[in-house]
Amino acid sequence: MTYGKPVRILHALLAMSVLIQIAIGELMNVPGAGDEPGHAFLQIPFAFAYEGHTGVIVEETLGFEVHEFLGLFIVALVLIRLILAFTTIPGAGWRDLFPYVCASGCKTLIEESKTLFAGLTRLKLAPPEESKAVAGSVHGLIILSVTCMAIIGTVLFFAWNEHGRQTALIDLLGETHEVIAGFLEALLAAHILAVILHQRQGHNIIARIKPGGE
Fold first, then answer.
1. 144-174: buried (b, 16+ CB within 10 Å) or exposed (e) per residue?
2. Lowest-confidence range among 53-62, 128-137, 155-164?
3. Which of helix, strand or coil describes residue 58?
4. Looking at CB atoms within 10 Å, which of 52, 66, 134, 173 has the fewest?
Protein backbone atom coordinates (compact mmCIF):
# COMPACT_ATOMS: atom_id res chain seq x y z
CA MET A 1 0.00 0.00 0.00
CA THR A 2 1.19 3.51 -0.84
CA TYR A 3 0.71 6.18 1.82
CA GLY A 4 0.51 9.90 1.13
CA LYS A 5 2.99 12.16 2.89
CA PRO A 6 0.42 13.68 5.33
CA VAL A 7 -0.53 10.15 6.42
CA ARG A 8 3.11 9.20 6.93
CA ILE A 9 3.84 12.32 8.98
CA LEU A 10 0.77 11.79 11.16
CA HIS A 11 1.63 8.10 11.58
CA ALA A 12 5.07 9.04 12.93
CA LEU A 13 3.70 11.71 15.26
CA LEU A 14 0.93 9.45 16.57
CA ALA A 15 3.26 6.49 17.04
CA MET A 16 5.78 8.54 19.01
CA SER A 17 3.12 10.36 21.08
CA VAL A 18 1.07 7.27 21.91
CA LEU A 19 4.09 5.19 22.94
CA ILE A 20 5.31 7.98 25.23
CA GLN A 21 1.78 8.44 26.58
CA ILE A 22 1.44 4.73 27.38
CA ALA A 23 4.78 4.74 29.20
CA ILE A 24 3.82 7.79 31.26
CA GLY A 25 0.37 6.34 31.97
CA GLU A 26 1.91 3.16 33.38
CA LEU A 27 4.35 5.03 35.63
CA MET A 28 2.57 8.20 36.72
CA ASN A 29 0.96 8.89 40.06
CA VAL A 30 -2.69 9.95 39.65
CA PRO A 31 -3.80 12.78 41.98
CA GLY A 32 -6.86 12.36 44.15
CA ALA A 33 -7.82 10.15 47.06
CA GLY A 34 -6.60 6.60 46.54
CA ASP A 35 -8.52 3.56 47.78
CA GLU A 36 -5.63 1.13 47.64
CA PRO A 37 -1.88 1.35 48.25
CA GLY A 38 0.12 2.29 45.20
CA HIS A 39 2.36 -0.31 43.62
CA ALA A 40 5.42 1.28 42.10
CA PHE A 41 6.69 -0.18 38.85
CA LEU A 42 9.62 2.19 38.46
CA GLN A 43 10.19 4.75 41.18
CA ILE A 44 11.15 8.13 39.80
CA PRO A 45 10.51 11.48 41.50
CA PHE A 46 7.68 12.78 39.33
CA ALA A 47 5.79 9.60 38.44
CA PHE A 48 6.16 6.43 40.43
CA ALA A 49 2.80 4.69 40.96
CA TYR A 50 -0.60 4.58 39.37
CA GLU A 51 -2.73 4.82 42.51
CA GLY A 52 -2.36 6.86 45.67
CA HIS A 53 -1.96 5.48 49.18
CA THR A 54 -5.04 4.46 51.15
CA GLY A 55 -7.00 7.47 52.37
CA VAL A 56 -4.28 9.91 51.35
CA ILE A 57 -4.75 12.79 48.96
CA VAL A 58 -2.08 12.51 46.28
CA GLU A 59 -0.93 15.85 44.91
CA GLU A 60 -0.71 16.52 41.19
CA THR A 61 2.62 15.39 39.74
CA LEU A 62 4.65 16.37 36.72
CA GLY A 63 3.94 12.95 35.20
CA PHE A 64 0.18 13.51 35.42
CA GLU A 65 0.47 17.03 33.95
CA VAL A 66 2.52 15.74 31.02
CA HIS A 67 -0.03 12.94 30.53
CA GLU A 68 -2.86 15.49 30.41
CA PHE A 69 -1.32 17.86 27.90
CA LEU A 70 0.21 15.14 25.73
CA GLY A 71 -3.27 13.64 25.67
CA LEU A 72 -4.71 16.89 24.31
CA PHE A 73 -1.98 16.92 21.66
CA ILE A 74 -2.97 13.37 20.66
CA VAL A 75 -6.62 14.50 20.46
CA ALA A 76 -5.56 17.14 17.92
CA LEU A 77 -3.60 14.55 15.89
CA VAL A 78 -6.57 12.17 15.89
CA LEU A 79 -8.91 14.91 14.69
CA ILE A 80 -6.56 15.72 11.82
CA ARG A 81 -6.30 12.01 10.94
CA LEU A 82 -10.09 11.66 10.90
CA ILE A 83 -10.37 14.70 8.64
CA LEU A 84 -7.85 13.11 6.25
CA ALA A 85 -10.14 10.08 6.04
CA PHE A 86 -12.51 12.23 3.96
CA THR A 87 -9.77 13.09 1.43
CA THR A 88 -8.36 11.24 -1.55
CA ILE A 89 -4.85 11.07 -0.10
CA PRO A 90 -3.46 7.55 -0.69
CA GLY A 91 -3.90 5.30 2.36
CA ALA A 92 -6.01 7.87 4.22
CA GLY A 93 -9.60 6.95 3.26
CA TRP A 94 -12.26 5.23 5.35
CA ARG A 95 -12.13 2.13 3.17
CA ASP A 96 -8.38 1.88 3.70
CA LEU A 97 -8.87 1.87 7.48
CA PHE A 98 -12.15 -0.06 7.61
CA PRO A 99 -12.27 -2.34 4.53
CA TYR A 100 -15.01 -4.44 6.14
CA VAL A 101 -17.59 -1.64 5.72
CA CYS A 102 -18.29 -2.89 2.18
CA ALA A 103 -18.90 -6.42 0.93
CA SER A 104 -15.90 -6.55 -1.40
CA GLY A 105 -13.55 -5.21 1.27
CA CYS A 106 -14.90 -7.68 3.82
CA LYS A 107 -14.33 -10.57 1.42
CA THR A 108 -10.77 -9.42 0.74
CA LEU A 109 -10.10 -9.04 4.46
CA ILE A 110 -11.31 -12.59 5.17
CA GLU A 111 -9.15 -14.05 2.40
CA GLU A 112 -6.08 -12.11 3.54
CA SER A 113 -6.69 -13.08 7.16
CA LYS A 114 -6.69 -16.78 6.24
CA THR A 115 -3.38 -16.32 4.44
CA LEU A 116 -2.05 -14.33 7.40
CA PHE A 117 -2.85 -16.98 10.01
CA ALA A 118 -1.46 -19.73 7.80
CA GLY A 119 1.77 -17.77 7.40
CA LEU A 120 2.07 -16.98 11.11
CA THR A 121 2.43 -20.68 11.90
CA ARG A 122 5.70 -20.46 9.96
CA LEU A 123 6.51 -16.92 11.18
CA LYS A 124 6.17 -15.78 7.59
CA LEU A 125 3.94 -12.98 6.34
CA ALA A 126 2.57 -12.30 2.87
CA PRO A 127 4.11 -9.34 0.99
CA PRO A 128 2.50 -5.96 1.80
CA GLU A 129 0.89 -5.88 -1.64
CA GLU A 130 -1.09 -9.01 -0.72
CA SER A 131 -2.18 -7.86 2.76
CA LYS A 132 -3.49 -4.33 2.24
CA ALA A 133 -6.85 -4.99 3.89
CA VAL A 134 -5.29 -6.56 6.98
CA ALA A 135 -2.76 -3.74 7.36
CA GLY A 136 -5.47 -1.12 6.89
CA SER A 137 -7.72 -2.83 9.44
CA VAL A 138 -4.96 -2.89 12.05
CA HIS A 139 -4.31 0.81 11.50
CA GLY A 140 -8.05 1.42 11.71
CA LEU A 141 -8.38 -0.46 15.02
CA ILE A 142 -5.44 1.45 16.46
CA ILE A 143 -6.95 4.78 15.41
CA LEU A 144 -10.35 3.74 16.83
CA SER A 145 -8.72 2.77 20.14
CA VAL A 146 -6.77 6.02 20.32
CA THR A 147 -9.92 7.96 19.42
CA CYS A 148 -11.91 6.31 22.23
CA MET A 149 -9.10 6.97 24.68
CA ALA A 150 -8.85 10.56 23.48
CA ILE A 151 -12.59 11.15 23.98
CA ILE A 152 -12.60 9.61 27.46
CA GLY A 153 -9.34 11.33 28.33
CA THR A 154 -10.79 14.71 27.35
CA VAL A 155 -13.79 14.13 29.65
CA LEU A 156 -11.46 13.11 32.47
CA PHE A 157 -9.29 16.18 31.83
CA PHE A 158 -12.21 18.43 32.73
CA ALA A 159 -13.98 16.20 35.28
CA TRP A 160 -11.20 14.54 37.28
CA ASN A 161 -11.21 15.59 40.95
CA GLU A 162 -7.57 16.15 41.88
CA HIS A 163 -8.41 16.90 45.53
CA GLY A 164 -10.71 14.05 46.54
CA ARG A 165 -12.44 10.87 45.50
CA GLN A 166 -14.08 10.48 42.10
CA THR A 167 -17.76 9.96 41.36
CA ALA A 168 -18.89 6.49 40.26
CA LEU A 169 -19.19 7.69 36.65
CA ILE A 170 -15.67 9.15 36.57
CA ASP A 171 -14.30 5.99 38.19
CA LEU A 172 -16.02 3.93 35.47
CA LEU A 173 -14.60 6.16 32.73
CA GLY A 174 -11.14 5.88 34.27
CA GLU A 175 -11.37 2.09 34.34
CA THR A 176 -12.64 2.04 30.75
CA HIS A 177 -9.70 4.25 29.78
CA GLU A 178 -7.34 1.66 31.29
CA VAL A 179 -9.05 -1.30 29.58
CA ILE A 180 -8.82 0.37 26.17
CA ALA A 181 -5.18 1.20 26.92
CA GLY A 182 -4.51 -2.52 27.49
CA PHE A 183 -6.23 -3.41 24.21
CA LEU A 184 -4.19 -0.71 22.43
CA GLU A 185 -0.96 -2.03 23.92
CA ALA A 186 -1.77 -5.52 22.58
CA LEU A 187 -2.54 -4.09 19.14
CA LEU A 188 0.70 -2.12 19.08
CA ALA A 189 2.70 -5.17 20.16
CA ALA A 190 1.17 -7.24 17.33
CA HIS A 191 1.75 -4.38 14.89
CA ILE A 192 5.41 -4.03 15.88
CA LEU A 193 5.90 -7.81 15.65
CA ALA A 194 4.42 -7.78 12.13
CA VAL A 195 6.75 -4.94 11.10
CA ILE A 196 9.76 -6.89 12.42
CA LEU A 197 8.72 -10.04 10.52
CA HIS A 198 8.15 -8.03 7.32
CA GLN A 199 11.57 -6.41 7.63
CA ARG A 200 13.27 -9.76 8.26
CA GLN A 201 11.64 -11.07 5.08
CA GLY A 202 13.05 -8.13 3.12
CA HIS A 203 9.73 -6.38 2.51
CA ASN A 204 11.19 -3.07 3.72
CA ILE A 205 7.78 -2.03 5.01
CA ILE A 206 9.19 0.83 7.10
CA ALA A 207 10.15 2.70 3.95
CA ARG A 208 6.47 2.74 2.94
CA ILE A 209 5.31 4.60 6.03
CA LYS A 210 8.25 6.68 7.29
CA PRO A 211 7.83 10.45 6.76
CA GLY A 212 10.74 10.71 4.33
CA GLY A 213 9.68 7.69 2.27
CA GLU A 214 8.38 7.77 -1.26
1. bbbbbbbebbeebeeebeeeeebeeebeebb
2. 53-62
3. strand
4. 66
SS3 category, 16: helix
Integer Cα distance of 191 and 2 in angstroms: 18
Cα(163)–Cα(7) distance, integer angstroms: 40
Query: Which pLDDT tens digit goes with each residue over 31-71?
Result: 775 554 444 333 333 333 334 344 455 566 788 888 989 99
Q: Global pTM?
A: 0.78
Longest CA pairwise span in the chain (Å): 56
Q: How many residues does the chain have?
A: 214
**What are residue 58's DSSP bridge partners?**
32
Determine the Cα–Cα distance for residues 129 and 144; give it in Å rounded to an integer. 24
Residues 204-213 have a mean pLDDT of 80
Dist CA 97 CA 7 (whole Å) = 12
CB 184 within 8 A of CB 18: yes
Q: What is the mean pLDDT of residues 13-31?
A: 88
- For the chain, domains (ranges, CATH) are 5-26+59-209 (1.20.950)
Q: What distance in Å separates the CA atoms of residue 140 and residue 100, rounded to the nearest whole number? A: 11
